[in-house]
Amino acid sequence: MTNPSPEIPVIAIDGPSASGKGTVAQLVAEKLGFHYLDSGALYRLLALAADKRGVSFDGEEALARLAEGLVIRFEGSEVWLDGEQVEDAIRTEECGNGASRIAAYPRVRAALLDLQRAFHKAPGLVADGRDMGSVVFPGAMLKIFLTASAEVRADRRYKQLMEKGTHANIAQILHDIRQRDERDSARSVAPLQKCADASLLDTSSMTIVEAVDEVLARFKQVCVR
Q: What is the pTM of this model?
């Protein structure tokens, strides 16, 4: 198992589903010229691969073996699995719910740990997920727990899906978000929770630009300490 180099800065942004952490993290990475890790995409890719290959979401050992052999590639906003572009496929609610289920398995999380840490390269990394600051990059220079109310997150996800031309039911989205919050927070391994050394950022009443600026301001503060 590889350990992250303490000399290369990491900004770890954790938070619940649909909190906007992915968009914020990606924009912060672009502003700083850092690499970007969307850890949730890895679990979504595994869920998609399992579905395509008929691997049950109830089989922890089989899922862990599948995780170890994933052939994936990230190119800008494109995500590839086994030579196929799957960005749209992994962003569905069904795939997200599947990812949340399999992310509860200790063997699956262990199988994906080195893959996530491989993104830690100079000049720096912005990583978003559920356990970036607590497990994957515990020595991160800046840890942020980015959240918003369940209602605001449901509304954001609904608008996002509608913009893509995907039919969506906001009541169902809100129900799914609350279920995922409960499942992610209650799992025994790497549960979704704010680290003691992470700073809280509630974006319920913030725009994306405001949230990005706030993260950059906090990073600047820790850099001058």
A: 0.87
Burial class for 160, CB neighbours closer than 10 Å (0-12, 13-18, 19+): middle
197, 202, 224: which is closest to 215 by C-alpha? 202
Task: Give the mean model confidence (pLDDT) for residues 115-128.
Answer: 95
Q: Could you give all domains of the chain from N- to C-terminal order, each with its CATH number?
A: 10-220 (3.40.50.300)
CA–CA gap between residue 67 and residue 102 (Å, rounded): 11
Half-sphere exposure of 61 (CA within 13 A, CB side): 0
The DSSP-derived string for the chain is -----TTS-EEEEE--TTSSHHHHHHHHHHHHT-EEEEHHHHHHHHHHHHHHHT--TT-HHHHHHHHHT--EEEETTEEEETTEE-HHHHTSHHHHHHHHHHTT-HHHHHHHHHHHHTT--TT-EEEEESSIIIII-TT-SEEEEEE--HHHHHHHHHHHHHHTT----HHHHHHHHHHHHHHHHH-SSS-S---TTPEEEE-TT--HHHHHHHHHHHHHHHHT-
pLDDT in tens, 185-215: 888 788 888 999 999 999 999 999 999 999 9
Measured between alpha carbons, how far is 42 from 173 in angstroms, rounded to an integer? 22
